[in-house]
Amino acid sequence: MPKIEIMSEEDMQKKFLLLNGDSKNVLKDFPDDCIHTVVTSPPYWQLRDYFADDQLGQEKTPEEYVKNLVGILKEVKRVLRKDGSLWLNIGDGYNNSSGFERTTDWKRKGRKGGSSDKKAFKHKTIKTKELIGMPWRVAFALQEDGWYLRCDIIWEKTNPMPDGVKDRPTRGHEYVFLLTKSPRYYYDYYRVLEDTEKQPEQIQGFGANEQEGTYRQDQERTFEHYGKRNRRSVWRTSVSSFKGKHFATYPPKLIEPMIMATTSEKGCCVDCGTPWFRKFEKVKKPADNKKGHTLELVDLGFYKGCKCKTDEVKRCLVLDPFNGSGTTGIVSFKYDQNYVGIDTSQKYLDIARDNIMGGKKTEDYSLVFKEVLTIEEII
User: Fold this and answer.
1) Are 148 and 185 in a shared domain?
2) Are residues 59 and 120 in the same domain?
3) For the chain, percent of residues with pLDDT exceeding 90
4) Tens digits of per-residue pLDDT, 119-147?
5) Which of 20, 54, 13 is nearest to 347 (CA)?
6) Under DSSP, is residue 173 helix (H, G, I), strand (E, B) or coil?
């Protein structure tokens, strides 16, 4: 666990805030620029009915869903710091019908005269049996709304849901989009580096030898390996299993790199909230075969990202406006950050509270966790 330069017993507690209500309305009470990173997975369109009034995901058309989600994320953008990030996991679906009706406790009642809980819809461009393309519809709409679309990440599922179709491949992935409020933002590149499988003995060259007919600027460049590489955009992990009654849960392993990359392990300035930055240096080491050298990364600690006089730090703040079972909160606590979760269902918030606290209420509970009641107590 990272060392946090905070002395008071109260501030050593991991703080969390769980709020019941519609995210768009709840966030109106939040101040501007107070959240460091947002990790969320909103209800997918026409996938599940949570039996709530005016719930996101039950709109009649894809266009209505996109408009409503963009409206919610516009408020998220306001409360996000200028150096903050949004990680958005969103799934896709097909324009077809399913033949089962479900009760409020999610038990199948079976077919009732051919009725279904999801019917194919008529659309001017999306035909029956077609993939809707919802993730990219949302991503482009957010881009139009001023977000910076920085990366599309493929979540490759090692145990995808079996698919009975025989005229196309089984879909085994979902999208995660990294979006930011500004072109420059906090991202701990070194913290999420991957190990390289094999480190070549010689300096590698790359780039085209001849540049005719291209504007590429990588001619005759070289690269020295140091056992690490930038994290790739295909993340392979299993689908999460959850014993409770909230079925739309992403696995902690999927979102761990998100929290690690966009919150500071050191913390942020207690006055202005600016994260501390990690500093590394590439150092040449003699090779084992006594020929040449190898490169190693040396951790030089952290440095301030602001000009405030104090060196005191506090935890960064993570938000999930579609809290669900609280997976984002669990991972936030694992990496020593504070957390705010919002959900329309009080039942799910109660489940999330137990999950976030590890299901344990011991005598020293108050020394580890503190649930606050207002946003002012946690920022």
Assistant:
1) yes
2) no
3) 59
4) 788 889 999 999 999 999 999 999 999 99
5) 20
6) strand
